[in-house]
Amino acid sequence: NAGVTQTPKFRVLKTGQSMTLLCAQDMNHEYMYWYRQDPGMGLRLIHYSVGEGTTAKGEVPDGYNVSRLKKQNFLLGLESAAPSQTSVYFCASSSPGGVYEQYFGPGTRLTVT
Amino acid sequence: GEDVEQSLFLSVREGDSSVINCTYTDSSSTYLYWYKQEPGAGLQLLTYIFSNMDMKQDQRLTVLLNKKDKHLSLRIADTQTGDSAIYFCAGRNTGGFKTIFGAGTRLFVKA
């Protein structure tokens, strides 16, 4: 099993450009999440999904959109990138029940100039 | 909403014990976790404790939970250089969809 994979690993954007980050999981998990990690601020939840076709806002959703058209994929879109969106983005997935352990991808480092 | 706080840095010598502390605000947190993040990688679950427990031991790791003070700690015995990482405290409610993470404590282990 590959677990949770993220594409791309690194990206540099100019202000105003758009991009999509792809997250894929092969564990048949219902729940998927997008976080951003900034120094001294830990992980902040951007959006999450509790099943195929559903999405919900997290703590810092502004400037981002998401889609979950297939259970195994969760896409994060930036329509018009801003320097404040420079961050490391992590995708995670989990199943309901048990201890709700979240499995994380390796991260995408995004720089917006 | 839930808030989770932890100190940002801890430095210890190899072979000593490390104690990383965390406080949380939501008394209804049912699951409390410690995640570890190694350089350049995502987070991995290290250990967890249920809110109805006071202590959990797993090899070199000991988790203590003080529900009255809403305080969680992670003790790593015989700390090794390979333990150098960022450790995140996190909490979750039963039936909730979200896990709330602290800012992470960066552990430095000096040889």
Notes on the structure:
The complex is a heterodimer of chains A (113) and B (111). Chain A is globular and about 40 Å long. The mean pLDDT of chain A is 95. In chain A, a hairpin with a 3-residue loop joins strand 4 and strand 5. Chain A is built from no helices and 11 strands. In chain A, 0% of the residues lie in helices and 51% in strands. Chain A starts with a strand and ends with a strand. In chain A, the strands form 2 sheets. In chain A, strands 2, 4, 5, 6, 9, 10 and 11 form a 7-stranded mixed beta sheet that branches. In chain A, strands 1-3-8-7 form a 4-stranded antiparallel beta sheet, with no helix packed on it. Chain A is an all-beta fold and 113 residues long. Chain B has no helices and 11 strands. Chain B starts with a strand and ends with a strand. Chain B is mainly β. In chain B, strands 2, 4, 5, 9, 10 and 11 form a 6-stranded mixed beta sheet that branches. Chain B is globular. The model of chain B has no long low-confidence stretch (mean pLDDT 92). Classes of the chains: A mainly beta (113), B mainly beta (111). At the A-B interface, strand 5 of A face strand 4 and strand 5 of B.
Secondary-structure blueprint of this entry?
The complex is a heterodimer of chains A (113) and B (111).
Chain A: E1 4-7, E2 10-13, E3 19-25, E4 31-38, E5 42-49, E6 56-57, E7 64-67, E8 73-78, E9 87-94, E10 103-104, E11 108-112
Parallel strand pairs in A: 2-11
Antiparallel strand pairs in A: 1-3, 3-8, 4-5, 4-9, 5-6, 7-8, 9-10, 9-11
Chain B: E1 4-6, E2 9-13, E3 18-24, E4 29-37, E5 43-50, E6 55-58, E7 61-66, E8 71-76, E9 85-93, E10 99-101, E11 105-110
Parallel strand pairs in B: 2-11
Antiparallel strand pairs in B: 1-3, 3-8, 4-5, 4-9, 6-7, 7-8, 9-10, 9-11
